[in-house]
Amino acid sequence: MKILAIETSCDETAAAVVEDGRKILSSVVHTQIAEHRIYGGVVPEIASRRHIEKIDAVVKKALGDAGLTAHTVDAVAVTAGPGLIGALLVGLNFAKGFAWMADKPLIPVHHIRGHIAANYLADPGLEPPFLCLVASGGHSLIVDVQDYTRFAVLGRSRDDAAGEAFDKAARAMGLGYPGGVALDRLARGGNDRLYHFPQPHVEGAPLDMSFSGVKTSVVNLLHNARQKNESLDLPSLAACFERTVCEALCSRLFAAAEQTGATILSVAGGVSANTRLRETLQQEAKRRGLRLCMPPLSLTGDNAAMIGAQGYFEYQAGHIAPPSLNAVATLSVERGAPQDFAL
User: Around Cβ 45, how many Cβ atoms within 10 Å?
Assistant: First the structure.
């Protein structure tokens, strides 16, 4: 089954064709990073306008690269939420029109389910059940993937997501946007024990996370140093902050594995591209004798291939959307049936 997938939840206009949820036939991503960099973050109105300008060309290229036409794909999958509502609506309305024109079924896909499904593209032998650490700009979750369309959240961030904390700390250090990549690069040359940040804990919820405090600690440290006209070792500051965040993420994932008895782990989302996080997960999983699945860097950020992968399994579960399908800005990964996106 060949699925045309569309993703416009934030500032990437993406389209892909995926076969049977496991094989990428084409993948096209148009990013807006350069345009949003001058504002220090994504401007929703600009993102939506650029999606309108680019989506037709991006979809045509994805179809052309796969050697297919509108009438030779079998279905259309689209991110229906969560995300920036204006951006989501561009992709959703294009997908609805395309599906109607080509007389193809329309499959709504939850964005976070898509990130998790990137692992099916990276490891064709991966099957549920397994645990997944989802770490991105908007979400930090420990997810029990019970089946392809059945999920349970075991832990979550109570405030800032890990990616959001990376970006805000990087901005305070003067590293620009996107901050996570710049901070990762800077941290490679630092001493990760020079500065101390407390490990965040949520009382009564050992698998939950909190990153607002450690982000604020970095901001306060920088502010106090400037007030006193003192200099800080920025590579070491970046390394210490990165270590604290990565330890919080990894400790929750392995604690969840102990709690559930899971032997297969995975990671997903933009923060899963972080060098230290990947290294720590690999080392600890090997030490514990657990299987770890990680998507390649090309599938860690927002892309449509992951939406096509999850779309295949949503289709198998009978999740076909009516014309009334709507976009939603916030929605738990535990919900992803068509009625969850209904008007």
Answer: 10
Measuring CA to CA, which residue among 288, 90, 323, 268 is closest to residue 341? 323
pLDDT of residue 55: 98
Q: How far apart are CA 23 and CA 221, in angstroms?
A: 47
CA distances from 87 to 7, 14, 143, 152, 175 (A): 9, 12, 26, 27, 26
Nearest to 113 by CA among 337, 279, 323: 337
Angle at alpha carbon of residue 244, lines to 205 and 191, rounded to 5°: 165
Strands of 182-336, DSSP E: 264-268, 291-293
Alpha carbon distance, N-terminus to C-terminus of the chain: 29
- pLDDT, one tens digit per residue, over 304-322 is 999 999 999 999 999 999 9
* Closest of 103, 107, 104 to residue 117, by C-alpha: 107
Contacts of 38 (CB under 8 A, 6+ apart): none
- Taken as a whole, the chain contains a residue count of 343
Q: Residue 143 in 3-state DSSP? A: strand
- The torsion angles phi and psi of 180, rounded to 5 degrees, stand at -60, -45
Full-model pTM: 0.95
Give residue 328's identity as a one-letter amino acid code. V
**pLDDT tens digits, 44-97:** 999 999 999 999 999 999 999 999 999 999 999 999 999 999 999 999 999 999
- Neighbouring C-beta atoms of residue 106, cutoff 10 Å: 24
Q: Which two tokens stand for residue 166?
A: 């990376």
Q: Which long-range contacts (CB under 8 A, 24 or more apart) does 114-117 make?
A: 114/7, 114/79, 114/306, 114/307, 114/309, 114/310, 115/268, 115/269, 115/306, 116/143, 116/145, 116/151, 116/266, 116/268, 116/310, 116/333, 117/21, 117/306, 117/307, 117/309, 117/310, 117/313
Secondary structure (3-state) at 154: strand
Please identify every stretch of the chain with a pLDDT value under 70, giving residue numbers as ranges: 343
